[in-house]
Amino acid sequence: MSLLVFIYLIGGFVLLVIGAEVLVRGAARLAARFGISPLIIGLTVVAFGTSAPEMAVSTQSAFLGQGDIAIGNVIGSNIFNVLFILGLSALITPLLVSRQLVRLDVPIMIAAGFLAWFLAMDGSYSRLDGFILFTCIISYTSYLIISSLKAWKAGKALEIDDEYSSQVNPHRFAWLINSAYILAGLVLLVAGSNLLVSGAVSLAQALGLSELVIGLTIIAVGTSLPELATSLIAAWKGERDIAVGNIVGSNLFNLLAVLGLAGLVSPQSIAVASSAIAFDFPVMLAVMVACLPIFFAGYRINRWEGALFLGYYIAYTAYLIMQSNGEDFATTFANAMIGYVVPLTAITLFVIAARAWRIQRGVTID
After folding, report:
1. pLDDT tens, 114-159?
2. Residue 131 or 337, more confident
3. How far is residue 4's CA from residue 109's CA, in Å, rounded to a whole number?
4. Is 1 helix (H, G, I), strand (E, B) or coil?
5. Which among 365, 116, 126 has a CA at the least distance from the CA of 266?
6. Which residues is 96 bridged to in the sheet?
7. Which residues pair with 271 in a beta bridge?
8. Angle, nearest 10°, between helix axes 47-63 and 225-236?
9. Cα 224 to Cα 68: distance, rounded to the nearest angstrom
């Protein structure tokens, strides 16, 4: 394996992160310059920016016919977002969960996951599938904008105000400078995605790993760096609700916008590996479904629940590596997880959620 492969991987990661940051800054300031509400900027431009690396990599991979990387990147990023990022953030400080997330956004995220899985059941994502997914993200975003405009008119604002409204450059050529930021961000994203995909394919071939495993692990972690930084900083600063909302929004965007656009731009249907349909999609859905009882129990994520998330991510990654190396222990490990650990965790989460529901209804717990 040559040094050039690692240079491609590291260089691609760096360019993606810088490109996403530059794109968000330029677009947000330009929108604010033209009088667009900071609230709308936060719900659209910033949400797009943190998921821009996933979109760049998956779209590029789909266009080049490397469907396993495109699909693995989305599934792996969503699993990493919940298990690793939320888990690590909760270890820093228990995270708060807004009631809207539990009642609206998390159920929509789960529904989007089932829709993506259902459309993949025939073994591919066609342009029609991509159109369906992309239409869903447009509808969801439109709903957010309409409801947020009502909140804005009622005098409610977001933290995004201070970050972007105050940064509007009064210079007469500010629009030109911010347009240059947007262009530079897009160029960096494209260049970073090219390097990352090339390096990932070479790494998969050198290590004898499938492109799907590379997409589920290395690329997924790399493209989730903006979400990781955002949630950890938010948790460290005490903005604990933002840390959770960032992950839920990113997962929704990955499932609907990233997969949808990848399906639309691909010159042919994107093949979905049978192993992804049979194992990785169900794992992703199980992870997202597990969010509901944890979030509902006191509308917070405690440190022990964060540790549980991290433990599951380590187990999932270990299984992928063992399976890709053809180790016999992988089957035993998977059976132990499915037969004992997962059911025990599910029962624990059910009991926690039931107790929380009874407490909220004023029922005395014996």
Report:
1. 999 999 999 999 999 999 999 999 998 888 777 766 766 665 544 4
2. 131
3. 38
4. coil
5. 126
6. 300
7. 124
8. 160
9. 18
For residue 50, give Cα distances in angstroms to 16, 89, 114, 143, 305: 10, 17, 23, 20, 25
Q: Which residues contact 48 (CB under 8 A, 6 or more apart)?
A: 24, 55, 253, 257
Q: Are residues 54 and 73 in contact, defined by beta-carbon separation less than 8 angstroms?
A: yes
Each residue of 347-357: pLDDT tens digit?
A: 766 766 676 66
Of the candidates 242, 235, 190, the residue with the CA atom closest to the CA atom of residue 56: 190
Task: Identify the pLDDT of residue 359.
Answer: 63
Burial class, 315, CB count within 10 angstroms (exposed 0-12 / middle 13-18 / buried 19+): middle
> Token pair of 276, please?
């992804």
With b meaning 16 or more CB within 10 Å and e meaning fewer, what string describes 290-304? bbbbbbbbbbbbbee
Domains of the chain: 3-360 (1.20.1420.30)
Residue with tokens 């240059």: 180
What single letter denotes the amino acid at residue 223? T
* Helix and strand numbers, DSSP H then E, in the chain: 20, 4
| Mean pLDDT, rounded, for 222-239 | 75
Q: What is the DSSP string of 289-342?
A: HHHHHHHHTTTEE-HHHHHHHHHHHHHHHHHHHHHHTT-THHHHHHHHIIIIIH
Q: Are 215 and 70 in contact (CB under 8 A)?
A: yes
Map tokens 């530079």 to a residue. Answer: 184
Instruction: Please identify which residue in the block is written with the tokens 């947007």.
Output: 182
Maximum CA extent, the chain: 68
pTM across the whole model:
0.78
d(CA 88, CA 330): 26
95's tokens = 């995270």
- Residues 296 and 351: their CA atoms lie apart, in Å, by 12
